[in-house]
Design a protein that fits this description.
The chain is mainly α. 74% of the residues lie in helices and 0% in strands.
Length: 334
């Protein structure tokens, strides 16, 4: 009897992989999280810039692959050229992430409660609750994220193949408002919602499901399973992030290419186009494979971001766990 009482908390502590939102120190979560995710963004930003350059490339540079594009940026602009628009992204990404993570955790907890009465398998429950939370969180954060995306992408391609040059993010905002009004900051908003909301749903659903499946394969899917080591937990989370990123990039790259073109086309060499005209131009320039421009960098970005982000995110949740709540729940279980 005593051994059961000792074993039960161990099993519960392991299967509480989704640390409840109400058990987190919110202030610490936001402050430390801003630092961690800013560091991850800093490391992976060059891949995002190369992907954007490839998606808006003109016919004369279509032959360049990701490495050639990367090398050309270093040759022309140096290392700083790989971080064009980074300041804008970081400034806007912090509030966007606060909105996203808050929505994600609260909606995930609510969704899990809704699906539990249906007695579905753990992978299916994880897919549904994570998918709903990921899509909803993305919808909530788009109002902040889209203007940041528009401004940063214009900075990424400035001076490239005839694109307009700017004096920083504030100059871009002024130019957009002057020529297009506030609506210009939300160019591609509908397509961003169509791209990122399903993308977020696929990512989080894939991550939740893959984790459950991997734990089953590693014989940690029953009540008698031993608690895995911290290294094994991190490895499974990282692998889940890679798989989720790979699947999401393959599904959503065509929409991302169209969205990027819509957001940066207001420059000296391109006339305004609607979605239909952008699609026709892509097909005429490079056939149907044009929709997958930048797939390599996007695949690497989403896989690398997925694994590093989720490991950082799970670590962040653990260090922000309120110890008082843990001790209280532990004493109650005894």
């Amino acid at each position: 009897m005593e051994s059961r009482e000792i074993a039960a908390p161990n099993v519960q502590s392991f299967y509480q992989t989704e640390i409840n939102w109400d058990k987190l120190n919110k202030t610490k979560f936001y402050v430390v999280g801003a630092g961690i995710f800013s560091g991850v963004t800093l490391a992976l930003y060059p891949l995002s810039l190369v992907k954007t350059r490839m998606q808006v490339a003109s016919n004369d540079v279509l032959k360049n692959n990701a490495f050639s594009t990367f090398r050309n940026i270093l040759k022309v602009d140096g290392v700083t050229g790989l971080y064009r628009g980074f300041g804008t992204v970081i400034t806007g990404a912090i509030p966007a992430r606060i909105v996203f993570l808050t929505s994600l955790e609260t909606i995930k907890a609510a969704s899990l409660k809704l699906v539990k009465p249906f007695k579905l398998s753990q992978p299916v429950q994880a897919a549904i609750s994570n998918g709903i939370a990921g899509m909803s969180a993305s919808l909530c954060s788009q109002a902040v994220f889209v203007p940041v995306d528009v401004v940063s992408q214009k900075l990424m391609v400035q001076g490239y193949s005839g694109f307009t040059k700017y004096n920083g993010g504030f100059d871009v905002v002024q130019h957009i408002i002057k020529t297009e009004g506030i609506r210009g900051l939300y160019r591609g908003f509908g397509l961003s919602v169509i791209t990122y909301s399903p993308s977020s749903a696929v990512w989080w659903a894939s991550y939740g499901t893959s984790q459950q499946i991997m734990w089953k394969l590693l014989s940690h899917g029953n009540d008698n399973a031993s608690v895995p080591s911290q290294w094994k937990i991190v490895s499974v989370q990282a692998a889940g992030g890679v798989m989720a990123g790979a699947m999401t990039s393959c599904i959503t790259t065509p929409l991302d290419t169209i969205k990027t073109r819509l957001q940066v086309m207001n420059n000296m060499n391109m006339q305004k186009q609607n979605i239909r005209e952008v699609i026709k131009r892509l097909i005429s320039e490079d056939g149907w494979r044009g929709f997958y421009r930048g797939l390599g960098p996007r695949f690497l970005t989403m896989s690398a971001w997925g694994s590093s982000m989720i490991v950082s995110y799970e670590y962040l949740k653990r260090i922000c766990l309120i110890t008082e709540d843990t001790s209280v729940s532990s004493s109650r279980s005894n």
